[in-house]
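Handout, section B. The chain below has 168 residues.
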Amino acid sequence: MTLARPILAGLATVALMAGSAMAQDKPGPAAAVSEEDGKWSAEDGTPTFKVDDQGSVDWYTFSGFRRYHSECHVCHGPDGQGSSYAPALVKSVENIDYYTFTDIVVNGKKEGNLVMPSFGTNKNIMCYLDDIYIYLRAVGSGEVPRGRPAKHADKPASFTEAENACMG
C-alpha cells in the first residue's frame, strides 16, 4: 500500500466505481472491521470511523472534523447539519454510498437551483476527502456528537507522509 493519497488515484477509483455506485444508493454499515495505520474500514472496504471504549475517536475522524469546518461548513452548516443554502451532509452520507459522495465532491452536481461546485482540483479537500466522509458518517450515525471531538487518537506517521505527498 502506498502511503500517498494522490488525487489522480482517487479520481481513477471514482471512475472505476461510478457504475456500481449508481446501482447501490445507500452506504453499507459504518461499523469498523479492519484497521491499517490508524485508518479504519467498514466491511465493504470503504473508510469509516472508530470510537474506542473511552469515547476517543480515530485520527481520521478528528482530521475530518477539522477539514470539514475549514472548507465545507460555510455552505453545509456546522457539523454537516445543513443550512438555508445547502443540504445536511450528515443525512446525505446516510443515503448515498462512499463512491457517490466522492463523485459529487470531485465533479460537482446540479439539481434544480442547487449547485454543488466541483472540488476535484482543491487539495484542501481532495487530500482529506476520506477524512471528511469519515467525520460525516460518524456524526450522521449518532455515535459521535456534534462539535469538536473531545478526545482523539494520535496522528499516525503514515498520515503525515500521505499529507505531505498530496499537498506537495
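Note. The longest helix spans residues 7-23. Compare this with the example in section A.
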